[in-house]
Amino acid sequence: MAGQNTAASPLFLREPELRRGLELLYFGNSHLTRSIDQGLADQGLGRAHHRALYFIARQPDLTVSQLLGLLAITKQSLGRVLNELIERGLVEMRPGDRDRRQRLLRLSDTGRGLENQLFDALRERLSAAYASAGQSAVSGFWAVLEGLIPPEERVRIGQLGD
C-alpha cells in the first residue's frame, strides 16, 4: 500500500480509514515541514518563527492581535518569537495609522527574502504532491482540511492574502 495512490474505501468513516487518514496527515505534514527545517536552523530559527513570517507575509500590516489569533499561541510565546524576528531585522513593527495602540507587522526586505526562500522549498514539495494527485484530489484534500476548521474561523482564513 505504501507509495500507491489508493482510493478510500466506500466505508471511509470506519476507524481503519480514519486512522489511515490521520497517519497520512501527520506524516505528510511532518515531511513537508522538515523540508524547511534546515533553512530555519541555518538562521537559528524554528517552526514558530516560520509560521509568524508566513502569515505576516500573507497579510502585511497584520496586527499583533490578528497574528495571535491566527497562530493560536499564548501572548508570551508570540512575544518571544516576534521580539527575536524584530531583533534580527526580519520583521518591522509600527503603530497603527488610526489607532496608535495597534502594532502593525510587516516583513523587512531581509524577512521577505527568507520567507520566499522557505516558501520555495514548501512549494516544490507541495506542487509535486499536487501534480501527482491531480486536480480533483487536491480539491477533495482542501475540502477535508477546511472541514477540520471551525466555521467561525474559516472567514478569517479566507481573508488571508486579500
Give the structure's gist in a few sentences.
The protein is mainly α and about 160 residues long.
Overall shape: globular
Helix and strand pattern = HHEHHEEHHH
What is the share of helical residues?
A: 55-70%
Instruction: Report the uncertain regions.
Output: none
Beta strand count: 3
What is the averaged pLDDT score? 91
Write up what this structure looks like.
This protein is mainly alpha-helical and 162 residues long. It is built from seven helices and three strands. It has helices at residues 15-42, 47-58, 64-71, 75-87, 109-133, 135-148, 151-158, and strands at residues 62-63, 91-95, 103-107. It has a three-stranded antiparallel β-sheet with strand order 1-3-2. A hairpin with a 7-residue loop joins strand 2 and strand 3. It is globular and about 55 Å long. The mean pLDDT is 91.
What would the keywords be for this entry?
162 residues, mainly alpha, 3-stranded antiparallel beta sheet, 7 helices, 67% helix, 7% strand, globular
List the SSEs and their pairings.
Elements: H1 15-42, H2 47-58, E1 62-63, H3 64-71, H4 75-87, E2 91-95, E3 103-107, H5 109-133, H6 135-148, H7 151-158
Antiparallel strand pairs: 1-3, 2-3
Helix pairs in contact: 1-5, 2-4, 2-5
